[in-house]
């Protein structure tokens, strides 16, 4: 789980929902130091059923922490649909702690930007936490070996066709004449070329020596 404290990136956590209280600590630090920083805790729909999420909501509200809880809801906790494991509404759970909660379409860049901007402004103004319930698609299984048989091929095809954030962004900016199609094509081409270069470099690279086994395993900031 990659982390870089210099970038304000505290890293992912191998324990489901365990990032939320850690992020509360980061938010408390920002509040006490008066840095105007805003901490953002990312979690999934499965994490919402862990007790530590409720504890984090309570702590964030009691201390009016500058924190945003982003819940990326793709409808499944590993291979189990939310309907089988999650009671009620996620937004109402946050609201029960008097935390503003917003439903957001995660495939709409503009909606996400607007909702996140409001949450950041609220946090910096001393208004405390916000929860963004972001609805996102999951195109593949939970992990590389997941057979992903709990969804039909038709469902996945429709998801790709209708809920691709990049395709939707391209369509939206074209409709309102924000970006020329040629500019978007150039970006796509540049990204594809960069990916091709990275893949080629990886395939051409020699296997590491045994002596390099522990290199960069632990980070040192000092």
TrEMBL record:
Superkingdom: Bacteria
GO biological-process terms attached to the record: pyruvate decarboxylation to acetyl-CoA
Keywords: Oxidoreductase, Thiamine pyrophosphate
Substrates-to-products reaction catalysed: N(6)-[(R)-lipoyl]-L-lysyl-[protein] + pyruvate + H(+) = N(6)-[(R)-S(8)-acetyldihydrolipoyl]-L-lysyl-[protein] + CO2
Segments forming domain Dehydrogenase E1 component: 3-209
Oxidoreductase recorded as keyword: yes
Cofactor names: thiamine diphosphate
GO molecular function: pyruvate dehydrogenase (acetyl-transferring) activity
CDD domains: TPP_E1_PDC_ADC_BCADC
InterPro entries referenced in this protein's UniProt entry, alphabetically: DH_E1 (IPR001017), PDH_E1_Alpha_Subunit (IPR050642), THDP-binding (IPR029061)
SUPFAM superfamilies: Thiamin diphosphate-binding fold (THDP-binding) (SSF52518)
Physiological role: The pyruvate dehydrogenase complex catalyzes the overall conversion of pyruvate to acetyl-CoA and CO(2). It contains multiple copies of three enzymatic components: pyruvate dehydrogenase (E1), dihydrolipoamide acetyltransferase (E2) and lipoamide dehydrogenase (E3).
Protein name (record): ABC transporter substrate-binding protein
Source species: Rhizobium fredii
Biological classification of the source: Bacteria, Pseudomonadati, Pseudomonadota, Alphaproteobacteria, Hyphomicrobiales
